[in-house]
Amino acid sequence: MPPPRPRRSTASNAPIRERSTSSSSLFDAPLKPKASAQPKPNPKAKVQAKSPAKTKANGTEKKVSVKPKTVLADDAKAGDDDPDAGDAEPPKKKARTAKGKVWPPPEIAPERHPPRNGYPIFESPSTTAAPNGGLPPSTTEKRPMLLGAHTSIAGGPAGALLRAGKAGANGLAMFTKSQRKWASNPYEPEAVERFRDLMKPKEEGGLGYPPESILVHGSYLINLGNPDQEKWNTSYECFKDDIYRCHQLGIKLYNWHPGSTVGACTKEESFASIAKAINKVHKEVPEVVTVIENMANAGSNIVGTAFSELASIIALVENKDRVRVCLDTCHLFASGYDLRTEESYADTMKKFDEEVGNGYLGGMHLNDSKADLAGNKDLHENIGLGKIGLTGFRCIMRDPLMAGIPLVLETPAPEKALETGDFAIWMREIKLLYEIQGIDDEEWKTRKDEIEERWRKERDSINPPKEKGLPAKGKAAPKGKKKSKKDDSEEEDD
Ligand SMILES: [Zn+2]
Ligand SMILES: [Zn+2]
């Protein structure tokens, strides 16, 4: 029952999703999904999130209240993705000290960031006629590629922006709180302020991460597809809290795993439970767009492995302006959507457009796959070095559909990458992706192997592959429960 979707007009190239190049928020551009049934002449929703303290409507006002000082989360430590970690000192803008540490820690301080210019723009590729299934650019207007990695919020949410800056990323993903706990302390008002300051353009002293460049990843604990009401309620509270935090921080895009039937109901019932949560949260928290991630493990209890399932959920969402899809390439591949060649990529994206609609694409997770096509195993690999290969990622980088939405690496990195602030692997991957984007079709044929070989050596020198085909530090999560890894490979296992 996906909403029938008119094919896009090739004549005028009327873009479904066109974004302006600069600053503008997601909402400035006509962001109209082709949801035929629900015409939504969205009168330009507001860009500015309100100051957190003013958000009455959602009844979560208390969240901004000041948490007790010195609370250091139980499991907080450097590299742990807990915003509370090391963030428990009194308000102060910079050079704050927490437990004897300065903020920001020198390893992620902005002075050490590489310049982020040089990569920001999508150049219309030299290919003919949108072979990728993407939208041919309607103008010659250049649009930014918001390419980055999932970064840690250790030390507070602002840490994610500082780390992304250090990796040379134009976009990023982050958690809003510890992904392993149902509840975390509310943000300190100054942590929110610090984050919002860093989002500002460089001219205003920030790092220049506009709201549409950030795709928050929701807690792994959430399962809104569970028919058990009590469990659904617990998940919903966590979900809403995540989204409220996005709102506080001025972030527009929130992505999460739709859930699982846990074998206790039909898929259709799960779709309804998930949509119920989406509709409810849309009423309770303003503005944030809920972005459903496609999942690996087709044929299991997991919801969202097929485009049709994503479409079925979207069909039940009342406010289509606030629902999008995030496609994880590893999950796609694991669920049987091929991306290895120009043709298979085009075919997969065509299916997406037909079944869901290109207008609903709100972000991508860029991961290669250690496992085979339709292997139903979610094992992330570094870009181009897994079973998908570089060609698939080159297609993505050259697909105009990808301009202006967050493209996030969730690829394996060395064990201590976060603690040491060594983001070499993601910096190289970002560079590599821009490099292959710029190579035209003819040259690609002759250079692909050479580039892959060079990159494999580089990767091996930064992060030698583990034996056994397991992702770096991918340790089994306890009894089918969610993993604890953050910036590393993301294994869905339930
Ligand atoms: Zn995910
Ligand atoms: Zn993902």
Automatic annotation (TrEMBL):
Instruction: Provide the Xylose isomerase-like TIM barrel domain boundaries.
Output: 164-419
Q: Where is the composition biased (Basic and acidic residues)?
A: 453-470
Residue numbers spanned by region Disordered: 1-142, 453-494
Molecular function GO labels: DNA binding; DNA-(apurinic or apyrimidinic site) endonuclease activity; phosphoric diester hydrolase activity; zinc ion binding
Biological process terms in GO annotation = base-excision repair
Stated family: Belongs to the AP endonuclease 2 family.
Q: What is this protein called?
A: Apurinic-apyrimidinic endonuclease 1
